[in-house]
From TrEMBL:
Residues 1-232 form the Deacetylase sirtuin-type domain. The lineage of its organism: Bacteria, Pseudomonadati, Bacteroidota, Bacteroidia, Bacteroidales. It is found in: Cytoplasm. Its EC number is 2.3.1.286. NAD(+) binds at residues 10-29, 87-90, 175-177, 205-207, 219. 2 residues (Tyr-54 and Arg-57) present in a large hydrophobic pocket are probably involved in substrate specificity. They are important for desuccinylation activity, but dispensable for deacetylation activity. NAD-dependent lysine deacetylase and desuccinylase that specifically removes acetyl and succinyl groups on target proteins. Modulates the activities of several proteins which are inactive in their acylated form. One of its GO terms (cellular component) is cytoplasm. This is NAD-dependent protein deacylase. It is an enzyme of class 2 (transferase). The active site is at H105. Belongs to the sirtuin family. Class III subfamily. PANTHER family: NAD-DEPENDENT PROTEIN DEACYLASE, NAD-DEPENDENT PROTEIN DEACYLASE SIRTUIN-5, MITOCHONDRIAL-RELATED.
Amino acid sequence: MKKKVVVLTGAGMSAESGIATFRGAGGLWGKYPVQQVASIEGYHQDPELVQNFYNERRRELMDVKPNKGHELLAKMEEDYDMTIITQNVDNLHERAGSNRIIHLHGELIKGCSSRNPYDPRFIVEIKPGEEIKMGDLAGDGSQLRPFIVWFGEAVPEIETALPYVREADYFVIIGTSMNVYPAAGLLHYVSYGTPIYVIDPNSVNVSDTKGMTHIHKGASQGVAELIELLRK
Ligand code: OAD
C-alpha cells in the first residue's frame, strides 16, 4: 500500500508561478486592505469593488502556469497516496495534474450564491478571464459572488480535510505563514510521531516540534529535496 502524504499549501506554493503572496514585502494585503477585499463585511460595504478585485485575480490566472513544485507534487502520485489541502484559490495544483485537492478557501474559477455560498446547486464555473458583474444572478436569484471563503465566514472544507490529516504517514507544509485559522490548526490533528516537513524559505508560525524538518528553500527546490528525503 502506498504511504499517505498530506500536503498543506499556501500562497508561497504559487509564488514561483508569479502569483503574489499575501503577507510580507510585496504581499497583496499591503496593496489592498484585507478587510475591504477579503471579509464578508467588506463585500457588504462595497460588493462591486470586491467583485472587481477577484475578476482581476481570475484574469491573472490566464498568465500563470504551474511551477516545478506543483508538477513534482503531482508526479509524487506515482509513489504515494497524495492529498493536497490548499489555502490557495488558484487552480495550479489541478493544472499540474494532482487529483485529490481540497480547497479550504474556495476557488477563483467558481461563483456562488451570495445567500447560500456553499449550496452546491448554485456553484457555477467562471472561466479564467470571465467576469462576475453586479446584476449577474446565482440559481437562487441572489447576486452571484466569487466562491471564496472570506474572513468572518465558515470554512466547511476543514471537515473534509481532517480525516486525511489524522491518517497521514507524512505531513508537509509548503509556502504558508501558518497565520490563518482554521487551516493552520490542521497541524494539531497530525498523529503523534508522524514526520512533519516544512518547505519555506522563511520561518513560519509553527513551534519546531521534534520530528519536524524545515527545508529552507522555495517550493520547487524544496519539493525536489523532500522527494529525496522520503526515499531514504
Ligand atoms: P502568506 O502570504 O501569509 O504566507 C506565504 C508564505 O510563503 C510565507 O511563509 C513565505 O515565506 C512563503 N514563501 C514565499 N515565497 C516562497 C516560495 N518561493 N516557496 C515557498 N514558500 C514561499 O500566505 P498564506 O499563509 O497562504 O486567505 O495565507 C493564508 C491565507 O491568508 C490565504 O489563503 C488568504 C490570506 O488572507 C483568504 O483570502 C481567506
